[in-house]
Write a structure and sequence with these properties.
single chain; 14 strands; Rossmann fold; alpha/beta; about 30% strand; 7-stranded mixed β-sheet; binds uracil
Length: about 210
């Protein structure tokens, strides 16, 4: 079964609460999401492999340790995933980026793919899939299925908020993919929105409502 990592650092919880408020402006919502993505990136990349390299300090030679950032791919589930991307790229600027576009059919709530663009050599890369909201889990599950066909070395899924329904869906369909989130909320409403949630993440990031 997928492991769930709830990132309960006080800074993460504080910023998440500010974002949830309905009167948070587009500007502050977007800024807070970026800051949260950066903070969460620390936890998500905690077990990334390091390589030894020889360097010269001003005083002597030593063996240092570096991440091979180019092996990492951040995959954004459009469009709200893009709100997460920049904050993560601040911490791992060498990462490659993929995009997958899925929309939710409003009647069936099923995911329909309209865009898919990935870096080459995916079978040698570690993947982190980002989408702020894990609601029904349909989009996330469809994205993971598609990405798995490219046989990356590893896959993680990162969201800001998760509903129990979405977690159950991913655990059933992709039990080997660990889930990182800042909170697990109570439930979905009849329109597939997370309660108490924060509303429509895409609209709040891009100011489209
Ligand atoms: N997508 C959102 O943006 N918000 C939700 O609550 C659920 C899915």
């Amino acid at each position: 079964m997928s492991s769930i990592h709830v990132i309960d650092h006080p800074l993460v919880q504080h910023k998440l609460t500010l974002m949830r408020r309905k009167d948070a402006s587009t500007n502050s919502f977007r800024r807070l999401l970026g800051e949260l993505a950066t903070l969460m990136a620390y936890e998500v990349t905690r077990d990334m492999p390091l390589q030894d390299i020889e360097i010269e300090t001003p005083l002597e030679t030593m063996t240092g340790h570096v991440i091979d950032g180019k092996k990492l791919v951040l995959i954004s589930i459009l469009r709200a995933g893009n709100g997460f991307l920049d904050g993560m790229l601040d911490v791992v600027p060498g990462a490659r980026v993929g995009h997958i576009g899925l929309y939710r059919d409003p009647k069936t709530l099923q995911a329909v793919e309209y865009y898919f663009k990935m870096p080459s050599g995916m079978n040698e890369r570690d993947v982190i899939v980002v989408d702020p909201m894990l609601a029904t889990g349909n989009s996330a599950s469809a994205a993971l299925t598609r990405i798995k066909h490219l046989q990356p070395r590893s896959i993680k899924f990162v969201c800001l908020l998760a509903a129990p329904e979405g977690i159950a869906r991913l655990q059933e369909a992709h039990p080997e993919v660990p889930i990182y989130t800042a909170a697990v909320d109570r439930q979905l409403n009849e329109h597939g929105y997370i309660l108490p949630g924060l509303g429509d993440a895409g609209d709040r990031i891009f100011g489209t409502k």
